[in-house]
Design a protein that fits this description.
By secondary structure, the chain is an alpha+beta fold. It is 29% helix and 12% strand. It contains six helices and 15 strands. The strands form seven sheets. A three-stranded antiparallel β-sheet has the order 9-11-15. Strand 13 and strand 14 form a beta hairpin.
Amino acid sequence: MKAFTNNHKRNHRPHGRLTPAGTQVTRSTLRRAFTLVELMVVIVIISILMALIIPATMKVRERVIEGRVATEIKQLESGVSAFKAKYGVEPPSQFRLYLTQAGWNSDPASMALVRRIWPNFDYTMGDAQSNGAAAGVNYPSFWWGMSANGTKPIAFNSGECLLFFLGGVIPVQGPNQIPVGFAKNPSYPFAPPATSSNREGPFFELTDVSRIKDFDGNGLNEWYDSIPNQTAPYLYFSSYEGSGYRVAGTGSELPTGSTLVDVYRIFSPSGTNTTIPQAGPSNGTIVGSQTLPAQKPQSFQIISPGYDGKYGTGGVYNPQLNNSGLVSSYNGSNPVYDTDAFDNITNFSGGRLK
């Protein structure tokens, strides 16, 4: 019996094992350690997946929002068409407005433009004495101050023309003001609702007032697209019924600080003519884009600056070419691509330029 007991003791092994330090490691301890390793592996895998999924998800979200902007641009196109259906002409993309007969007389081109839209327009603005008596009656009251008491024109650039002609006047100066259309009074279409409640338009309505802003601080508002934290407005360029675009970068069509030097143009390589023209005018041996046929040659171009809030330079656009043919300039014989324009959204591309 004693021998059996001794043999049993010699043959008996604990369910764990001893480490060199004599610490017993049991199966449950091993199992806990293995679980921690598994957990670390899972965490690493999840981190890798998140690194892949989050950018992809953000990109999908960007594309969805860009699709909404493209849809809104179509609605703006419809607004331009509605304006033309009413007045027989598309809105201009540059406009100088005067509050006195003398002012209008000094600018026959602006006078003729107004006459095409409102043939019975009263160029005295109802203020024959030029003392601001008609302010707030025949035109918004704040226009008197903006025009330096009637001595200077109120100049609308491309983005401001889009809001003004499709939206109409705003009764109170400042951003976040919804335009209220034009008065149906043929002599004083700029009269505010307080004195002329019978209105025409707006031809496009943007109810999100946070997207109605004054980009350059001149008192005239623009419409911004729905991209979060957008910093620059929609731009609108008219071909003036096919007579030709006024070259961007000249006059007052562009907002302050804009980098555009041309509208967008059509170019397809053929034969030996394979070098993409740079944006803007020619420079020495480098051919410029301004002599090319324009996108939307008989109507107009609407441009959103996209997520980066930058318009780029304009010029050639051809989705069949490398980087859509968006060449801003040349470094020797090497094209410098206009990366600022890649995410622009327009009415001739149906979405991003690239």
